[in-house]
Design goal:
This protein has 272 residues and is of the alpha+beta class. It is built from seven helices and four strands, in the order αααβαβαββαα. The protein is elongated.
Length: 272
């Protein structure tokens, strides 16, 4: 009798949470007392940070779907993961988060599972450590997937082993940094800043050289244009001068033509 109202309330609150961008799965866990496994749920933001870079602690995640056949199998394996989470909580394990994450709660969950974490089946148990744990490329090199038996002891021992490997990687890096064989994160950040500043200066110099070349080209083009204008003006002046000279020659009278019957030698008319 009291279960149906709680389901309706959970559905309504989940819809409202989705509209506000709140983790619906966490609200449902609160309403139902986290009955779908005692393992805490990791948020999208925290899981995204753990996938991007080591956030200062290791993360062991149980990816699952509560629906269909995958949901049935999850309900069988998740209690084993709950035992692992309770064991680490009792041991007060430092720098380790044991959590679960539903890949079907929202579109953001789906994108994070399939596009970033590359989850291929349900359930998938992954461990994200300090440095390389697999032969995968990119940020997934820090991840390794459990492929052992579905036993609580096996899962627990696997998380302990992965945490030990991650700790040794951190210790080795720190030792190398103290011995100056490996730069510290601060030194790496400073070197990155210097490299970016050098690239910026080089880009600025290239831009200045390009601007100077363009300015010189425009100057040469303007000088050529001025020379062309001067040549054209000189040609027009020469043509005008020649036209004026032709006009002056046309105004000068030519030699007189002899009249008929006029003897130019005797300069007198002929006798009858």
């Amino acid at each position: 009798g009291g279960m149906a109202p709680r389901i309706a309330a959970a559905f309504a609150v989940a819809l409202a949470a989705a509209a506000r961008g709140v983790e619906a799965s966490s609200i449902v866990d609160q309403l139902f007392g986290n009955t779908f496994g005692a393992t805490p749920t990791i948020s999208v933001a925290n899981l995204s940070a753990a996938l991007e870079a080591w956030p200062g602690y290791d993360v062991a995640v149980f990816y699952y779907s509560p629906y269909g056949e995958a949901g049935k199998f999850t309900s069988q394996v998740l209690p084993l993961w709950d035992q692992v989470a309770r064991w680490h909580k009792a041991k007060k394990t430092k720098r380790l988060v044991v959590a679960k994450f539903s890949c079907e709660s929202s579109r953001a969950h789906q994108q994070l599972c399939f596009d970033v974490a590359m989850v291929q089946q349900y359930p998938t148990i992954a461990f994200y450590g300090y440095s390389r744990l697999s032969f995968r490329r990119g940020r997934l090199a820090r991840a390794t997937v459990y492929r052992g038996l579905a036993l609580a002891e096996a899962l627990r021992d696997w998380t302990v082993a992965m945490r030990w490997i991650s700790w040794t990687q951190r210790f080795g890096d720190r030792l190398l940094q103290l011995l100056w064989f490996k730069p510290t994160p601060e030194q790496l950040e400073l070197a990155d800043l210097r490299a970016r500043e050098a690239r910026r200066q080089l880009d600025l110099e290239r831009r200045l050289e390009l601007a100077s070349a363009k300015l010189a080209e425009r100057t040469r083009s303007a000088a050529s244009s001025d020379a062309l204008h001067r040549s054209w003006d000189s040609l027009l002046a020469d043509l005008a001068l020649e036209a004026d000279q032709d006009t002056d020659l046309a105004d000068v009278p030519g030699p007189a033509k002899p009249q008929p019957g006029f003897d130019r030698e005797k300069k007198s008319p002929p006798s009858a």
